[in-house]
Specification:
Order of helices and strands: HHHH
Number of domains: 1
Low-confidence stretches: none
Distance between the termini: 45 Å
Strand content: under 5%
Oligomer: single chain
Helix content: 40-55%
Structural class: mainly alpha
């Protein structure tokens, strides 16, 4: 079974479109871990939203809009220019860098 959109995990499907097929193929969703890792890489590279969408399309043949990308970034807590890296992660990165310098 394909990975699917992580934003829809655990949501019940009811109503006239219970299969979730809206007549539009968004491409192949990668596994959640891989998608999160790629989104973090794109944030590290400081790519714009449009560049991130292009990369997702080229890498996974995934076609999503700006709003879905924003929801995914929020879902995975991906840092942005306005939302800096969480303190715990920043602290760990500094400690790792210091450890590398002393080796």
């Amino acid at each position: 079974m394909p990975a699917g959109n992580p934003l829809l995990k655990g949501k019940g499907k009811s109503g006239p479109n219970s299969l979730g097929k809206n007549g539009y193929d968004n491409g192949n969703w990668p596994d959640e871990d891989l998608l999160e890792a790629k989104l973090r890489d794109y944030a590290t590279e400081q790519l714009t939203q449009k560049q991130r969408l292009l990369r997702l399309h080229h890498k996974f043949r995934l076609t999503i809009g700006m709003r879905t990308l924003a929801k995914l970034n929020k879902h995975f807590n991906i840092p942005s220019v306005r939302r800096p890296v969480p303190t715990e992660i920043a602290d760990q990165l500094v400690l790792n860098k210091m450890s590398d310098l002393h080796d």
